Amino acid sequence: MRRFLVSFVLTLAKAASLAGEPSGASFPIPQVVSEATNTPPATTEPVGRPVGFVWIKPGTFLMGSSNTEAERGKNENPLTQVTLTRGFWMGRHEVNQAEFQLVMGGDRSQFKGETLPMESVSWFNATNYCRKLSLRERAAGHLPPGYAFRLPTEAEWEYACRAGKVSAFAFGSALSSTKANFNGNHPYGGGLKGPYVDMTTPVGSYPPNAWGLYDMHGNVWEWCLDWYGSYPGGEVTDPKGPINGFKRVVRGGNWFLMGRYCRSADRMYDFPGSKDPSLGFRVVLAQGE
Q1: Looking at the 3D structure of the chain, how many domains does it have?
Q2: CATH assignment of the domain containing 273
Q3: Is residue 21 part of a domain?
Q4: DSSP for 163-176?
Q5: pLDDT score recorded for residue 26
Q6: Helices marked H in 59-148 — which ranges?
Q7: Which pLDDT tens digit goes with each residue over 146-160?
Q8: Predicted local distance difference test score (pLDDT) of residue 108
Q9: Is the Cα dihedral 117, 121, 122, 124 positive or negative?
């Protein structure tokens, strides 16, 4: 059977010390080589896995929050049943500064450090990173046919963040600063007050969710692909948000906000040209883009 052969673009000696990665991990920019001439629909995980990525299988979940979730936002209604028919790989971490520099050749972050998340980055910067990475790897023959790097849709982001949970966070109904980088002076749901770091922290510094994704709560807002808009309610399949708009979705909260903004269902938005030390991103590798 033909298979995916997974390697990586570059190996950095210091990458093994990246917080949250197992000992001996490689620098997490994948190089995926496929011998296949035809790639089947991404409903089951292909053999092999890009370094630094997690396979997210297809599934159905409720997007938004229930009326009983404390401090919820009005824009988290109506609850919408979302079915994602294709699986995708999602970055285990937010894109860090070393990764961004390798692809884009520059770093405008306010807080400097190779393993810190790339921030002060606009939606345009983030999508351009995905485009350049896709072009480079495709030209080198390192991507399976029909695959590309991109930002996650809002639905993909929440699905991956929840990791099968319906609680306010992927690990329960409370948040304290032992679980995520946010303003620990304002925990959520009975979580204990803790230190306020007042800056970003290295990616992978806090426990991952059940699907192995780090920093889905806190650290930096993460740009999503979608324009911001209201939820449709009912049942939808593979939603991608409105066809146009003025602001793009950001998710996950950040290092200086209260715990309520780090909830799985919390939705925020910003102009796509905005650059702020609270704004970062992670990427997915998906079929059909």
Answers
A1: 1
A2: 3.90.1580.10
A3: no
A4: TT--SSBTTBS-B-
A5: 30
A6: 97-104, 123-139
A7: 899 999 999 999 999
A8: 87
A9: negative
Tell me, yes or no, whether 214 lies in a domain.
yes
Residues 56, 3, 141: CA angle, nearest 5 degrees: 90
Low-confidence ranges of the chain (pLDDT < 50): 1-39
The first and second tokens of residue 200, run together, are 């970003």
Residue 185 structural domain: 53-287
With respect to residue 205, please indicate whether it lies within any of the assigned structural domains.
yes
Measured in degrees and rounded to the nearest 5, phi and psi for residue 226 equal -75, 150
Instruction: State how far the Cα of 220 lies from the Cα of 268, in Å rounded to an integer.
Output: 12
In a domain, 6, yes or no: no
- Residues belonging to the chain: 289
Token reading at 3 = 């298979």
- List pLDDT tens digits, range 107-161: 789 999 999 999 999 999 999 999 999 999 889 888 888 899 999 999 999 999 9
d(CA 250, CA 264): 12
**Burial label, 43 (beta-carbon count in 10 A; 0-12, 13-18, 19+):** exposed
Residue type, 155: A
d(CA 64, CA 66): 7
What distance in Å separates the CA atoms of residue 264 and residue 169, rounded to the nearest whole number? 5
